[in-house]
Amino acid sequence: MKKVIMISMTSLASLFLIVSCSDSGGSSSGGTAPTVVEEPESVKTQDLVAPEGFSFNPIEEQRLIVDLSGSLPARAHLSVYSNFSEKDEGEYRVDYGSKIIDVPLTNGAVDIKFAIADSLNESVVEIWLYDGSNPQQKKFVVDGTQWEWY
Length: 150
Description:
mainly beta; single chain; Immunoglobulin-like; four-stranded antiparallel beta sheet; three-stranded mixed beta sheet; 1 helix
């Protein structure tokens, strides 16, 4: 008796699987074929070509010429900053942690070349005097030309 019940249950389970997997009463269109997605052809590094004149070096050389010898005392100091915000018209709040260079001016003048990130758009230059006054500030655009402050 147990054997008959076991065979009946197995037959019933098989019948259930067959019925549930068939296309009974579904659409008569016969189903749709799966969409074939074409894989893009992989590109190898050796196949990449950079345009002529392109540089992978993210650092550019910047030149700064300052000559304020007629309006500055003999001792002054110059700093260049990459991060700043504008306070008022012509005044800037610099992030002292973003200092790029820091050099003394000799008789109010300096001509210096330094490295700057090519992702930088603008920079602020400050000239500090040793009398405790606020620094003179000037904003420069990073566009590949030398900066001049006369």
